[in-house]
Amino acid sequence: MAKKVKGVQCKIYVVDDIESENPTILAGQRNATLNRSAETMDSTAKDSDGGWKENEAGFKEWSVDADGLLVESDDAYDLIEDRFNASEKIGVIATLPNGKKYLGTAVITDFPIDMPYEDLATYSTAFTGSGALRKESGTVEQ
Please, which domain of life does this record's source organism belong to (predicted)? Predict the structure, then answer.
C-alpha cells in the first residue's frame, strides 16, 4: 500500500535567487497550493475522429498560493514583503516529504494581512511563476 502524503509535511521556502543554497522556510505556514496549468490549442480539423474536438497543449504556467499565521519575526515573510514593495521577483521552493521539490522564480501578485478582532492575525500570498517550474529530488535544509 502506498504511503500517503500529509499536507503538514509539505513546506514552502523563499530565496533571493533560485540557485541559492540557503532557502528560508515560511514560518507560520498553514496551507499552500501548487497550481500548474496549460493552455489548450484547438487542433480540430474536418477529418477529426467522429466529430470530436481535438486539442494540443500550449504554454504552461504555474503559481503557488500560501497562507499562515503572522509571526513577530520571520525572515521569509520579510523577504516577501521587501520583494513585493520593490516589485521584484523571488525564488519559491515547494517541498514534499519524499524529497521531491519544485523550484521557480515568481512575482508576488497578492499579499494581504487579515487582522480579525478576536483571532490570530494571518497573511496570504500568491506567487505567479515567471518561467519554468523545475522538479528535483533531494532535501532542503531547514
Answer: Bacteria
C-alpha cell at 113: 494581512
Contact 39/58 with Cβ under 8 angstroms? yes
Q: What is the pLDDT of residue 9?
A: 87
Cβ neighbours of residue 12 under 8 Å, at least 6 residues apart? 25, 26, 29, 32, 64, 66, 92, 93, 94, 95
The alpha-helical segments, DSSP class H, found in the chain are: 75-86
pLDDT per position as a tens digit, 40-68:
999 999 888 888 899 999 999 999 999 99
- How many residues does this entry show for the chain? 142
Cβ atoms of residues 54 and 30 within 8 Å: no
Residue 129: its H or E element: strand 122-129
- Radius of gyration for the chain, computed over Cα atoms and rounded to the nearest angstrom: 18
